[in-house]
Design a protein that fits this description.
2 domains; 5-stranded mixed β-sheet; 5 strands; 37% helix; 21% strand; globular; disordered C terminus
Length: 205
């Protein structure tokens, strides 16, 4: 794929619209990673190789280029991602916006805490945190910042429904939310449903 392709140009416009990139080369590598992700359909660096342009002739040259990007301290993923997810959700047309709060354990060593928008059977990440933690069970203090980050990205005047399993029914969470708004709690199909009319107010609690 060439730089002047429709997909590349669209991604360049979208990813570069409001994000504070420190260097244009950082944006270029990010675009090619997204292109590779779209074409390969999976998060697998080895499968991305054929879609990543690079002056080097060998696969390890492309590996190094991506790994340099991933380990670059000048690239703040959360700061770059926030304006993108805000723009994506700004014109939300549906009455409700469903969020999922869950955890995933990797290699029995790292725990990913994630808040995502549930839409058409997909989960679009809004905010996340990775802990060096050997269990998928976490306390409220572990994910409070993730909720705060997510709340700042949500559109206004939209009914927010937070979906989470029983592992997230913590007293501190209930107090933080119910202090500012009415709270309804139920458990359909192993899921807890927190009906939050204006969840953004969590930020100020």
């Amino acid at each position: 794929m060439k730089k002047n392709s429709r997909l590349y140009n669209a991604l360049n416009t979208w990813l570069g619209q409001a994000s504070p990139w420190a260097h244009k080369a950082h944006l270029t590598v990010c675009i090619w990673m997204v292109v590779a992700l779209i074409h390969s359909g999976e998060v697998n660096l080895t499968r991305w190789i054929s879609y990543l342009p690079c002056r080097g002739k060998y696969a390890h040259s492309k590996h190094r280029r991506v790994r340099r990007w991933l380990n670059n301290p000048r690239i703040n993923i959360h700061r770059l991602y926030k304006p993108l997810i805000q723009a994506a959700l700004a014109d939300w047309q549906q009455e409700c916006l469903y969020l999922s709060l869950d955890t995933s354990l990797f290699w029995d060593e790292y725990c990913l805490i994630r808040v995502a928008v549930v839409y058409r059977g997909r989960a679009l990440p809004v905010a996340w945190r990775v802990l060096h933690h050997s269990s998928a069970m976490v306390s409220f203090k572990d994910y409070r910042d993730v909720l705060d980050q997510a709340a700042r990205c949500l559109p206004k005047d939209v009914k927010i429904v937070l979906l989470a399993d029983r592992g997230f029914v913590h007293k501190d969470l209930i107090q933080a939310l119910s202090g500012a708004m009415a709270l309804a709690l139920s458990y359909p199909f192993e899921k807890g449903c927190l009906d939050l009319a204006h969840w953004q107010r969590l930020v100020s609690t």
